[in-house]
Amino acid sequence: MPSGGTFQFKVVHVETLDRDQRALLRRSSERPCDRQTQVFLGDTMGELPVFLGVADVAFVGGSLVKVGGHNMLEAAAQGVPVVFGPHVFNFSAIARLLRDQEAGVMVQDVAELAGQVAAWLQDASERSRVGENGRQVVEQNRGALRHLVEMVEGFLEPFRTPSVPDQKEKREG
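The structure corresponding to this sequence follows.
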């Protein structure tokens, strides 16, 4: 279950969709989409990769409000162009990398979000270019943790003390 603030945001958003009489279908209902479905809400755990696999664009939730965005690499890894808000303090390095490599776009508000999504939905080649940039960013950074550990170990090497032989080695010597 999401935290209180996030859950309330989701509830308000869904209530807005219902009030506007959008044909909303929740994944948790386990019913298939039909011609009347306008919004398919992925409200189940563990299925994000499936949804991203068929997505044209991904918006990273939590990033337009001071909650903090979710991990945008999941979408980028699948070649889906990513748009996110300014509140990505918990993924700031990733957000910067995606922006710098033209693999994601930061927007400031809902109006900019709508404009960016509309632009990508109208331009398949641009959508594809940005998505491919995201896929490349993820691929180029695979193994980054291993590389970081190796770097830290290299920096620490001069400060290591010689190992002290353990009791078994003392008895054998």
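The chain has two domains: 1-45, 56-154.
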